[in-house]
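Blinded run. Sample ID left blank on purpose so nobody reads anything into the name before looking at the predicted structure. Input follows.
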Amino acid sequence: MPNTIETYIVDSFTDKPFKGNPAGVCVLNKVVSDQKMQLIAKELGLSETAFITLINTPNRYSIRYFSPKMEIPLCGHATLASSKVLFENNPKLLDIHFKTIQNLDLRIKSIGNKIVMEFPVYDTIPQKAPDKLLKALGINTIINSVFNKETNILLIEIESSTILKNLTPNFERLKRSHKTINGVLVTAVSENKDFDFESRYFWPWSGTNEDPVTGATHTFLAKYWSTRLDKMKMTSFQCSERSGFMEVELINDKTLII
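Blinded prediction complete.
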């Protein structure tokens, strides 16, 4: 079939089937229009679908990410899923470079039974969370509220990971409560000794209501918690219904390993 596209669905950030965050991975061998990629992502209906194309050498690929609603500049779980597909299909491949739409060079390594991803580190600045947004989330009290401009995401820290796990947002009200952000990340210190911090990511403005496990938010979340906890290496848990986890380590002010 001349129009066939090699496509996979991979559960990322988990060691159990049907947990973590499922991503679509489409391996392209010819140019596909933006419109077609958007339609495929909408058809698959996953948080994100990655479209990867070999550039010129066996380990260099372009990568683009689409939610069912729009193109997303950076996505952690779809990068991990794409890496898994390439490493499994090419057993001799141990190192991959992905070039994103923002010209980021994401270096991915296969080390033993782990996949190690190098991502950029981003800063946050103070920004007030609107009362309507907090009410839509079901949050009464917050510890902190900051904003990351690169991802256009608002981060809200609350006092308890139990409260975080039990949040049941009103997504229609949430979407109406803010007009300029891509999503809101709610986070708390973990009450589980196996993890340092927990989070949930809500993004009805630009994707699905809730992203099960979100790698790209750790571009600023890792630095945020590194400062708060005075640690460079941490374990993160996303306490969504599907749930998932990852190890994160700040190498320097510019590079994060997931």
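Unblinding after everyone has recorded impressions. The mean pLDDT is 96.
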